[in-house]
Design a protein that fits this description.
Blueprint: E1 23-34, E2 40-52, E3 55-60, E4 67-68, E5 75-76, E6 84-88, E7 94-100, E8 105-109, H1 114-117, H2 123-128, E9 139-142, E10 147-152, E11 155-160, E12 165-172, E13 178-187, H3 196-199, E14 205-207
Parallel strand pairs: 8-14
Antiparallel strand pairs: 1-2, 1-13, 2-3, 3-6, 4-5, 6-7, 7-8, 9-10, 10-11, 11-12, 12-13
Length: 213
């Protein structure tokens, strides 16, 4: 199935350089694709998403535990569904790790393996869900003091200035046979919130390449 890709969406120029506000959200993804045979397929899933103090956590909801292979007896992690933690270190360099909850391990992924593990290397998309760095040819309409809507040829972004994150993203192919929608329900973090990456900080670290054995 050919899925419309969010990386094609370049939106919203001249963002503030201030730190992004802390938040949590449930993010719902839906992709509808109609094949040449006329059959329409729908793909849906949801993620828990947390942003706090330069860290971002993404976790697929309702994902099954890693499966066990009969040939080697190992549990192999599904990196598309596993919890992912992305942050900037003291030098400003991006760091990426995945969490293997069943084995209580942190899987560290070096930059050269990011794409293999499903991370595209974009801090903008990790921290704001879309690449909010440019706005070329998109019309803008202010809906309220907080919300602005950007549109261009089958692409619509409903953007929250308060949260510096999308509330809804809609993409549609020129022929209308592929549609992708992302809806975001942002909330403030509760008082005393303990982020999940702190709870797993003491887990032993394993290199990503070791998980491919």
């Amino acid at each position: 199935m050919k899925v419309l890709c969010l990386t094609a969406l370049a939106l919203l120029a001249q963002l503030s350089h201030a730190a992004l506000p802390d938040m949590q959200a449930i993010v719902h993804y839906e992709t509808v694709s109609q094949g040449a045979d006329g059959v329409e397929k729908t793909l849906r899933y949801s993620e828990r998403w947390i942003r706090q103090s330069g860290h971002v956590w993404r976790e697929r909801l309702n994902a099954a535990a890693p499966h066990r292979h009969d040939d080697d007896g190992h549990q192999h992690l599904d990196f598309a569904a596993a919890p992912r933690h992305v942050w900037r270190d003291a030098k400003g360099e991006l760091q990426v790790e995945f969490l293997h909850a069943a084995k209580q391990e942190r899987i560290a992924v070096a930059k050269r393996e990011w794409s293999d593990a499903g991370f595209d290397g974009s801090w903008a998309r990790a921290s704001q869900l879309v690449d909010a760095s440019q706005l070329r040819g998109f019309s803008k309409k202010r809906k309220s003091a907080d919300v602005a809507v950007y549109r261009k040829a089958g692409k619509t972004l409903r953007w929250s200035e308060r949260w510096q994150a999308p509330l809804r993203v809609s993409l549609r192919s020129d022929d209308g046979k592929q549609r992708e929608t992302i809806t975001v329900a942002p909330q403030a973090l509760p008082a005393g919130f303990v982020p999940p990456w702190q709870r797993s900080a003491g887990w032993p670290e394993r290199d990503y390449l070791d998980t491919l054995d």
